[in-house]
Design brief:
Shape: globular
CATH topology of one domain: D-amino Acid Aminotransferase, Chain A, domain 1
Largest sheet: 6 strands, mixed
CATH class of one domain: Alpha Beta
Order of helices and strands: HHEEEHHHHEEEHEEHHHHHEHHEEH
Radius of gyration: 24 Å
Helix content: 40-55%
């Protein structure tokens, strides 16, 4: 069998020498998606403490002001030679489509409301962005290479949150290399700049949508700050101390040591070489180093059958078990920060909050009374998760809060993931 990297230090040396990138696999993170703090393996335990302290104090301003993460439909727009173009994916970022193209893209969509959302928004954007001066079009959109990332919020086409106004919320401009690859981010300032420029030429209000910059959230200090701060610090301390780590250690150290324990517990009778390969496979997503066919020649058929079953059926469950204490910590923390927030896009947040509370209680009760065993199990699991992070009363009418720290963008979503799953089970049985 090909010699495996026998120690984690050798793995790091190999990664540096070969310029190979491996990501620690944490359930919930995905490439191209905004990260929760618990998704980022490079954050330290002290970083976590900074987030908690700032959030409970109502001061989540690190690199820029915290903004609302809204629950709408995403699209990108650019301007090339005075024509507004659109993109929904990397391919379209390389070859953006015009107003006619995006209208055609959604013309056969099964949902009339989705079709209307993108069609009406594209029409308003084509009218508004084309009114920017030629210099501003070039400055911000670089002849069609840079794209404004935005959220379409159409009151007639809600997802989880019901909004009572129709807005296009600019997030910020993504810079590309012209081949569809994002190479830079101008941040929220670019969104604010263009919204201001559009206001200057009376182009912020379209026929259906109003264009708004990132919605800055107002935060206040938690009334139970003196109790909540030590409460969360003890949780962080417990995770850090579980493997005798230091505050400046990256949390990837915790996850790597957790996986070592799990592999030793389940596969302690295998050689160290194979166990190191399993660590790279399951914790870092490196499926090349360990040749499973070669492993089958070196262990008993019974061992290989157990290994294959674990690899196929158990690894995802273990990901969730590994990340759960970090996830619960930040979802609970996020729910507290969001309860202390105001200035949401929803014009009537109190009414929407009450609607969500009532819908979750009523519909969950119906499922538990007359749903299938699978539906009941899923609903009870999500209600339990909701209870761990504050319960139904902690539900807020927003998808979450976005903040920037050391150049990276993170989200705090609180209860949104749980209610999203619950409503999915209730509406679609999934």
């Amino acid at each position: 069998m090909k010699k495996l990297i026998s120690t984690y230090n050798e793995f790091l040396i190999e990664r540096i020498n070969t310029n190979t990138s491996y990501d620690l696999i944490l359930e919930g993170g995905a490439a191209g998606h905004m990260m929760h703090p618990f998704d980022d393996k490079s954050l330290t335990f002290d970083d976590f403490r900074k987030f908690v302290t700032a959030g409970l104090q109502g001061e989540m301003t690190f690199d820029e002001e915290p903004t609302e993460k809204t629950d709408g439909q995403n699209v990108f727009a650019t301007v090339k030679d005075g024509t507004v173009m659109f993109a929904r994916n990397k391919g379209q970022m390389q070859n953006p489509i015009d107003l006619k193209g995006i209208t055609q893209m959604f013309i056969d969509h099964p949902s009339e409301l989705v079709r209307d959302t993108f069609t009406f928004a594209a029409q308003d954007l084509a009218s508004s962005l084309s009114r920017l001066s030629a210099d501003d079009q070039m400055k911000y959109f670089n002849d069609g290479k840079n794209f404004m990332n935005m959220e379409l919020i159409y009151s007639k086409n809600p997802n989880v949150i019901n909004y009572d106004r129709d807005v296009i919320q600019f997030h910020g401009i993504k810079e590309t290399d012209g081949e569809g690859n994002i190479i830079g981010d101008m941040g929220a300032k670019s969104a604010k700049d263009i919204a201001k420029l559009l206001d200057g030429v009376n182009a912020k209000a379209g026929k259906v949508f109003n264009i708004i910059p990132p919605q800055v959230l107002k935060l206040r200090k938690d009334v139970d700050f003196d109790d909540k701060l030590p409460y969360f610090m003890k949780k962080i301390d417990a995770l850090q101390n579980q493997y005798k780590l230091a505050g400046h250690d990256e949390v990837s150290r915790y996850h790597e040591m957790w996986w070592r324990d799990e592999i030793e517990k389940s596969f302690g009778d295998l050689t160290q070489d194979i166990k190191e390969g399993l660590l790279l496979r399951w914790a870092y997503g490196d499926k090349k180093t360990l040749n499973m066919r070669q492993v089958a020649k070196e262990i008993t058929p019974e061992q290989m059958e157990f290994l294959r079953k674990y690899d196929k059926a158990d690894v995802n469950k273990k990901y969730k078990e590994n990340i759960r204490p970090f996830e619960d910590l930040f979802l609970e923390f996020g729910s507290i920060v969001l309860k202390n927030a105001s200035n949401f896009v929803a014009a009537s947040p109190d009414a929407e909050m009450q609607r969500l509370h009532n819908e979750i209680r009523t519909e969950a009760a119906k499922i538990k009374k007359g749903g299938s065993v699978d539906q009941i199990t899923k609903v009870e699991a999500e209600l339990a998760r909701l209870d761990r992070i504050g319960g139904i009363e902690s539900i807020i009418p927003t998808e979450g809060l976005v903040f920037k720290y050391n150049g990276k963008i993170y989200k705090l979503t609180g209860t949104f993931a749980a209610i999203n799953q619950l409503l999915g089970i209730i509406k679609y049985g999934r």
